[in-house]
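Quick illustration, no need to memorize.
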Amino acid sequence: MVQIEDFVAHSPVSQEVIAAYRDRVPSEIVEIWEQYGYGTFGEGFIRVINPSVFEAELGDRIGKTQGDGIAIPVMVTALGDLITWEPSVDSLVAILFRKFETVGLGSPKTFLGLTRLDGAEHLEEEFAWDPYPEAVARQGAVTFDESFIFVPLPSLGGPGTVDTLQKRPTISAIQVMVDLQGPIGH
């Protein structure tokens, strides 16, 4: 059983979404949808999202070019990183648009377990989350559909400091980041 102590529910996941993705994502992801729904955890940093909305809106911007070409969006971070399930590598993969890189996160069980056990330390190691807590202290938490986005992006020469973080709608921010710098092939 998946346990996420600090999960804050946003809304339930429809049975249509669960049925459409049940055989495409690991059982732990389906269990999160059934047990918790959409929402946040990891001090509000990680958000469980609707994969069908993100697939429809982002499409080829996800950048999956290797293996079987399948990358199913299942989570995003409060810094606009997309977390996908990639069956060809049997792993969750974080696409860090702000850094123009990807990070393998392991199985959902491993990722959730390390996040639960190590909290902020694990999130810093995997996502370079350090600006996030300070941004929340300065600007308040982002809404479920928002992320803090660096303007300009560090990958395009921006300083990557908390002073350059701005609240933006997550999907449109990802679209703009990819339009500016191209998809991150992985």
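The chain has a mean pLDDT of 94.
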